[in-house]
Design brief:
heterodimer, A: about 280 residues, alpha/beta, Rossmann fold, Hypothetical Protein Tm841, Chain: A,domain 3, 2 domains, six-stranded mixed β-sheet, four-stranded parallel β-sheet, 14 strands, about 25% strand, globular, B: about 575 residues, alpha+beta, Serine Threonine Protein Phosphatase 5, Tetratricopeptide repeat, Alpha-Beta Plaits, 4 domains, four-stranded antiparallel β-sheet
């Protein structure tokens, strides 16, 4: 039986375009606001390339801000699936970090003819991306929407994002994370290591040198045990190749996807960050 | 020199013509009240020799004054028993040992407190002690002291304690006279102190005997003098001063002015007159010394007053002025603004650190230290200070960062005394303490954090730039008093005519292939401009490194450097 379930996610999932096309994942773009201009995020018409974004970030006169798309853009995405799908599972960025979950819901109300299940991933970037991919794989196997929802809710507690930020400054400026707003690390420059897990962004370590920060990051990844999925994340770091090599024995596949993190997240973490999105084994 | 002087002063009993006949009678028991007098005498004698013992530091750096630490430890011991009417020697000794334990500061002070702990435990509840009890108590004291140190080192106070105990046992076979046994013990202590350089090469190189061992010898010698009926201290004024000083530990928080310390050196100083004047100036006065050199310590609202007075009498040395007001305000501010949960990355683990200097305190707090106990070089916090900080935290688990080699034992002692679960991270420098703090993982449990923090100490190399406090030849370097010296991981490595040259030379030694960041914590005697100028030259030498300049505000040390 042909799959009649389709997956929708937002562009902060960082699902590589080729994979999204292959698995028929619909990606709704978020917006990034730089000064007076608003850009659609990602490889979309009117978009801003990520490489250009990160190169400009340190010298941008205004702090870039991010915005969720209007609800009707989600509605449009759902509407496009009428005829191809009987049901839709929309998996979006962590609800306590963004209003995306709300907008995905509002959009669904505008399309009453198509049942839409909206899931709060509690994740960002490829943490969310892996959930969308795993959902799309299950849908492609012909699983029902209820089964896909149960599957995704079941793996949510095994999805982790870890990242090493070159500086705490961007996260602090963003005001999104309470602990980063505090006086912490204001006296000495440090490189924080953050974890995103079940919607919470926490500081799980810090180091003064980049080499040590990367080592700590890898310790955290290693502590997860066997991994079902692994993706490398970066915001254009000079030591990306070295990082890839260091992770080779942890990756379940020979060539884990490597993505430049969405500018939506990148605006909050700054350039030269490194990280992973992982789904831990059962 | 010191030892020769001692030899003259402790000439055998028979050479003294004015010895009362009473002293020739066999002295077979000591009760609690007599023991009190012995402790008082040892304290007085120790205080008189305090600066001489301080000068026995191996490194000519303003660090860990053994004489001061041991005297403060004995001061606390005496304060605990001075009003005790009890005649039971066991109970008096227990109280005294408790006082020593709580007041213990510096490594020698901590070992000394362990000696008394073993000594008192052996006496148990005895009414009086006899020779055989003294022998057993000395044995127990030695065993306890050795156990109190993770890696006992010979050529230190430990070796002296053991020699004393062994000699006491030997002497007891021939007599039941306590005076005679104590004479043997003092002689054995002196011989053992003399031998310390042959056991510990670093002492031989520095041309000193072990300061802690010397302190123990002085303590025993003070006791012997009292038993022989000699006056250790006939000066009533000085005894008053000592008593005033005994309140120092309790009242230091109430002073909130400036803590002023200096030495007056002059040809003909009137110690009593100086004491009277200084006492009238402020709180917690301590004036001790001799006509050629007087040590002054006082808490005053205006530090200029005692300093001008001192300068009018002679030349001043080792002037230390600390703003207690600022520290107090800082402490109050911290109390008034409780930390937000978000500012405490590790919710159920409290962190106590030790540091001196506003800037360093800020750095440690910004990285998660809940309480920073004032102390470090030259002013080691007592076991009691650390215990108070540990017990003052709302958490049941506490990690303690001594940040100084000479604070580690007091920290371990405080750890064992607290009801809480306490771990001491053996960090010996401020950069090591900072590296340990950085390793905290809010997701991990206590043991994992302790492990990670302990291993993080290795992540950083520490440099310290200061002034030599005396002339010495060490590590093949000829060092003159007052010269700028540089230490790499506590080892004396460079000396240079200027601060900048010394710092650059030291950093060149500390540099390695892995270096990414050099941090300069500049002290209270360095201006921000000077520190920035130095940073500029570092950037020229090492364009690839990140250079960070931080106001440390520490005394004595121009720069504390961290290379990682």
């Amino acid at each position: 039986m042909v799959s009649r379930v389709r997956i929708v996610t937002d562009s902060t999932s960082d699902v590589p375009t080729a994979i999204a096309e292959q698995l028929h994942i619909t990606v709704v773009p978020a917006y990034v606001q730089i000064g007076a201009r608003s850009y659609r995020e990602g490889p979309f018409p009117g978009g801003l390339s990520r490489e250009a974004f990160y190169a400009q970030l340190p010298t941008m006169p205004d702090v870039p801000t991010t915005a969720v798309p209007p609800a009707h853009e989600f509605a449009a995405a759902y509407r496009d699936l009428i005829g191809q799908a009987d049901e839709v599972v929309a998996i979006v960025v962590a609800s306590n970090l963004s209003g995306m979950y709300n907008v995905a819901h509002l959009g669904a109300r505008e399309v009453p003819e198509l049942p839409v299940h909206v899931i709060d991933s509690g994740q960002v970037t490829m943490g969310l991306g892996w959930m969308a991919i795993i959902a799309a794989e299950a849908a492609a196997e012909g699983q029902s929407a209820a089964d896909v929802v149960a599957l995704i809710e079941g793996i949510r507690d095994r999805v982790y994002v870890y990242a090493m930020l070159d500086t705490l400054e961007y996260l602090r400026r963003s005001g999104r994370v309470s602990w980063a707003r505090t006086k912490m690390a204001q006296v000495l420059r440090v490189k924080p290591i953050i974890q995103v897990y079940r919607g919470e962004v926490s500081n799980v370590g810090r180091a003064r040198t980049r080499r040590r920060a990367v080592d700590r990051l890898i310790e955290h990844i290693r502590a997860l045990g066997t991994l079902d999925r692994l993706a490398l994340l970066h915001t254009y770091s000079p030591d990306l190749d070295e990082f890839q090599a260091q992770l080779s024995d942890l990756s379940p596949t020979a060539h884990p996807p490597t993505v430049a993190v969405t500018t939506i997240i990148g605006a909050h973490v700054g350039p030269q960050g490194l990280g992973v999105a992982a789904v831990a084994g059962r | 020199m010191l030892i020769e002087a001692m030899e003259r002063k402790s000439a055998p009993l028979k050479d003294q013509k004015d010895v009362p006949v009473l002293q020739r009678r066999t002295h077979t028991t000591t009760d609690g009240q007599e023991f009190k007098q012995l402790i008082k005498a040892s304290l007085d004698w120790l205080q008189q020799h305090q600066s001489a013992i301080n000068s026995l530091n191996v490194y000519p750096v303003p660090d860990g004054d053994t004489g001061t630490n041991m005297a403060l430890t004995m001061q606390s011991a005496w304060a605990e028993i001075k009003d005790l009417p009890d005649h039971n020697v066991g109970r008096v000794a227990h109280k005294m040992a408790y006082g020593a334990l709580m007041g213990a500061r510096g490594n020698s002070g901590v070992i000394l407190s362990q000696i008394w702990r073993g000594f008192s435990r052996s006496l148990d509840e005895k009414e009086v002690y006899r020779v055989e009890d003294l022998v057993a108590a000395c044995q127990e004291a030695t065993t306890t002291a050795y156990k109190g140190v993770v890696k006992p080192v010979e050529g230190t106070i430990l070796t002296v304690a053991r020699a004393v105990a062994d000699e006491a046992a030997r002497a007891a076979e021939e007599t039941d006279d306590l005076v005679s046994v104590l004479e043997h013990m003092v002689l054995a202590a002196r011989e053992a102190v003399k031998l310390t350089p042959s056991l510990l090469p670093v002492l031989a190189e520095a041309g000193v005997v072990d300061a802690g061992g010397q302190g123990l010898f002085i303590i025993l010698d003070g006791m012997l003098r009292r038993m022989r009926g000699e006056l250790v201290f006939g000066d009533a004024d000085l005894i008053d001063a000592v008593d005033l000083f005994s309140h120092d530990l309790e009242t230091v928080e109430a002073g909130y002015g400036y803590d002023v310390q200096f030495l007056i050196v002059g040809p003909d100083l009137d110690v009593s007159a100086i004491r009277e004047t200084i006492t009238s100036m402020g709180e917690c006065p301590l004036v001790v010394g001799e006509p050629t050199m007087v040590k002054v310590h006082v808490h005053v609202p205006d530090p200029g007053v005692p300093i001008s007075y001192g300068a009018s009498l002679g030349s001043l040395q080792d002037v230390v002025v600390e703003d207690m007001q600022a520290q107090y305000k800082h402490f109050i501010a911290e109390q008034e603004a409780p930390l937000l949960p978000a500012q405490r990355p590790v919710q159920n683990i409290g962190i106590v650190a030790v540091a001196m200097g506003d800037g360093l305190v800020r750095v440690l707090e910004s990285l998660g230290a809940d309480i920073v106990v004032h102390g470090g070089q030259t002013m080691n916090p007592s076991t009691h200070d650390l215990l108070e900080a540990i017990d003052g935290l709302p958490t049941e688990q506490v990690i303690l960062l001594p940040n100084n080699g000479n604070v580690i034992l007091a920290a371990e002692q405080a750890s064992s005394l607290s009801q809480k679960r306490v771990a001491v991270i053996p960090c010996r420098t401020i950069p090591q303490g900072i590296a340990a703090l950085l390793a905290i993982n809010s997701q991990a449990d206590f043991e994992t954090n302790v492990r990670a923090m302990t291993s993080a100490i290795e992540d950083v190399a520490t440099g310290e730039v200061t002034v030599a406090t005396r002339s010495v030849t060490l590590n093949g370097l000829k060092i003159l008093d007052g010269q700028i010296i540089g230490l790499h991981n506590e080892e004396l490595k460079v000396t240079a005519p200027t601060l900048k040259e010394a710092t650059l030379a030291l950093l060149r030694q500390m540099d390695s292939d892995d270096t990414e960041i050099i941090t300069l914590y500049y002290g209270q005697d360095v201006t921000e401009d000077d520190a920035n100028e130095l940073a500029q030259s570092l950037m020229l030498d090492w364009p690839d490194y990140e250079i960070e300049v931080v106001a440390g505000g520490q005394p004595h040390y121009f720069y504390i450097l961290s290379v990682e």
